[in-house]
Amino acid sequence: MKNPLILVTNDDGITAPGLRSLIEFMKEIGDVVVVAPDSPQSGMGHAITIDNTLYSKKVIIDKDKGAPAEYSCSGTPADCVKLALQELLDRKPDIVVSGINHGSNASINVIYSGTMSAAIEAGIEGIPAIGFSLLDYSWKADFSGVGRSAKKIVQEALTQGMPRGTVLNVNIPKTDGAEPKGIKICRQARANWREKFDRRKSPTGREYFWLTGEFELLDKGEDTDIHALSEGFVSVVPTQFDLTAHHAIQQLNSWNFNE
Amino acid sequence: MKNPLILVTNDDGITAPGLRSLIEFMKEIGDVVVVAPDSPQSGMGHAITIDNTLYSKKVIIDKDKGAPAEYSCSGTPADCVKLALQELLDRKPDIVVSGINHGSNASINVIYSGTMSAAIEAGIEGIPAIGFSLLDYSWKADFSGVGRSAKKIVQEALTQGMPRGTVLNVNIPKTDGAEPKGIKICRQARANWREKFDRRKSPTGREYFWLTGEFELLDKGEDTDIHALSEGFVSVVPTQFDLTAHHAIQQLNSWNFNE
């Protein structure tokens, strides 16, 4: 049987340790091609580049541990997937994996996540896709405990196929090299960011802001990703790109628009 | 009774005719404050600015037809909403309206939409929110037929309150000034973009790409936004930011992770 073709991308950029680890894990499962941003794209959400040019070039980042073919791209994670599928790959990949992100994409973070936007872009194109994130923002994060879970999830996705119209949002607790306790299927916890803007003055006296904030959990459910992670489990949330709130349609039909 | 406070934003930038029209419509309903990007942000998805500074300043774009208070912001639509709520407004707005976008945000376009990301950001913060888009990409689009529908929808939202965890994605057919046939509650049509990259060479010989593509409808349902728009109706899709594919959780629980 032919090896599965695995497209690897991310939002932290092609040199990020999380991506380099994911490449090594995926090489144990199939043939890997990398198409990833040439610079960090965190917080890019599902941005695409429509008013600017895109550059892409073949690169070698790590001759021994890297993939046989790697491309950097000047665009966003969603751009990388579009460019890979349309221009750079010889055939449709069997799966697209994105990450491993340095930092959580659990709960409401999925909305702002470049890592997940790459997975969602592939999902829209009908390709099984998974975003991986480790709950450690450090560039020196320890990814050694992540491999076994990541490989299991990718192998099951290749074997079972993805539920229609979904991609997987996988978050992994920070274990500093130890194995997580197991893998749990979860729902996205309800939460928001309590923003704080840090007001400063530039050397020339112009006022500017830095966006900062605190994560605020609004959900005590034990079936959420945040809960699973807090107990040391890997969380897997099936994530959809049909954003329709189907349950709300009936309620809205009672609104009085047409008199 | 106090006038409702209406925050108006968009992704085409603070000078866009669609925004200027929306301000005029909303001034008939309540007190309007504008916080909008200082330059076009189309295709920004739900991007936020975390690795860069944000600037904001009070501006007067149109002394007569504008709002009493308008601010431009160097960030994305989601940044504008965060900054408005946290730093610029005296009190929580009763509703946030975004648009009117020059071009469709129906169907899968919602995923890439800066207009909708502003609405979703407000929804996450628990504020009723609506994104408006007109199916006309032209900067000179005729917004005169849009006012009656837009005002009706905002008034109903203020009266009825928004279904929990949802915002509204409103798309308006191009009617060149005429009234749409009515308003329909819909679901998001299944579709994708069939990408094409236009490969070119720069004057110095470097290869680059432009992202282009064609919208591909994969859905023949008569309850979709695309169908309503094709029949001349305004489409209203309740849109959620809990991306969990709840129906897929059971299926994923049959996957074999933990042996």
UniProtKB/TrEMBL annotation, chains A, B:
<keyword id="KW-0547">Nucleotide-binding</keyword>
<keyword id="KW-0963">Cytoplasm</keyword>
<dbReference type="InterPro" id="IPR002828">
    <property type="entry name" value="SurE-like_Pase/nucleotidase"/>
</dbReference>
<feature type="binding site">
    <location>
        <position position="11"/>
    </location>
    <ligand>
        <name>a divalent metal cation</name>
    </ligand>
</feature>
<dbReference type="InterPro" id="IPR036523">
    <property type="entry name" value="SurE-like_sf"/>
</dbReference>
<comment type="function">
    <text>Nucleotidase that shows phosphatase activity on nucleoside 5'-monophosphates.</text>
</comment>
<feature type="binding site">
    <location>
        <position position="42"/>
    </location>
    <ligand>
        <name>a divalent metal cation</name>
    </ligand>
</feature>
<feature type="binding site">
    <location>
        <position position="12"/>
    </location>
    <ligand>
        <name>a divalent metal cation</name>
    </ligand>
</feature>
<keyword id="KW-0479">Metal-binding</keyword>
<dbReference type="InterPro" id="IPR030048">
    <property type="entry name" value="SurE"/>
</dbReference>
<feature type="domain" description="Survival protein SurE-like phosphatase/nucleotidase">
    <location>
        <begin position="6"/>
        <end position="194"/>
    </location>
</feature>
<dbReference type="Pfam" id="PF01975">
    <property type="entry name" value="SurE"/>
</dbReference>
<keyword id="KW-0378">Hydrolase</keyword>
<comment type="similarity">
    <text>Belongs to the SurE nucleotidase family.</text>
</comment>
<protein>
    <recommendedName>
        <fullName>5'-nucleotidase SurE</fullName>
        <ecNumber>3.1.3.5</ecNumber>
    </recommendedName>
</protein>
<feature type="binding site">
    <location>
        <position position="101"/>
    </location>
    <ligand>
        <name>a divalent metal cation</name>
    </ligand>
</feature>
